[in-house]
Amino acid sequence: MIISNTAIPRHVVVIPDGNRRWARKKGLKPWIGHQEGAKNFELVLEKAAEMKIPYLTFWAGSLDNLTKRPKMEVNFLFQVYKNYFEKTIGDERIHKNQVKISVLGRWKEILPPKVKEPIEKAMATTKNYHQFFLTFLIAYNGTDEMLDCVRKIVKLSNPYPLKITEKTIKENLWTKDLPDVDLIIRTGCANDPHNSAGFMMWQTAYSQFYFTKTLFPDFTAKDFEKIIKNYSFRQRRFGK
Length: 240
What we know:
The chain is α/β, with parallel strands linked by helices. The chain has one domain (about 5-140, about 180-235): Decaprenyl diphosphate synthase-like (Undecaprenyl pyrophosphate synthetase), CATH 3.40.1180.10. About 45% of the residues lie in helices and about 15% in strands. The chain contains 10 helices and 8 strands. It has helices spanning about 20-25, 30-50, 65-70, 70-90, 90-95, 105-110, 115-125, 140-155, 165-170, 220-230; strands at about 5, 10-15, 55-60, 100-105, 130-140, 185, 210, 235. The longest helix has 21 residues, at about 30-50.
């Protein structure tokens, strides 16, 4: 069965590749690319709200990004997170549009207290909003999420065996409250289209993908809108 899209996607993921490459091309330190990427994300978020896309997920840093890269770069990323969430708390657009903010991954283990505090405050401040859902994945790997899911199910099965269904798995994922992903936009890798670290492997089983040549700091709201319109003309087969 082929299902033709007639509307915008319900759940869009943005994977922002190319911040470091963008900085390198300009002779800048890699963390400047992250800084510019963070500014750019605000424009994408505004466009997503304008287009009435209810769920937007942003992979703001994999576990590998935050544990294997140079300490100076990682510390700057921490500062980018801190600045963004501090700003978000008082952002009138977040409150006007009733945007609920969630952060998933192992960020509580990895981030320093001064960074965790504004994140927790942003989530607490927006917890009762239900018009738009903005999720950040920080210190997140899909393989990590699935391993944690399996461990939870093993505990639930002790001492009595548990019948494992799709519902059982879904209920034990970090991303259990998110709907399946309709569209994944990955910037800066049109010549090397790929997934990474088992990214959201359960919710992306039937996702559509769009890979851009544009590095994320140069990715515009117009680019985002064009991709969403492209999606609306696609036909989805869902394995049939």
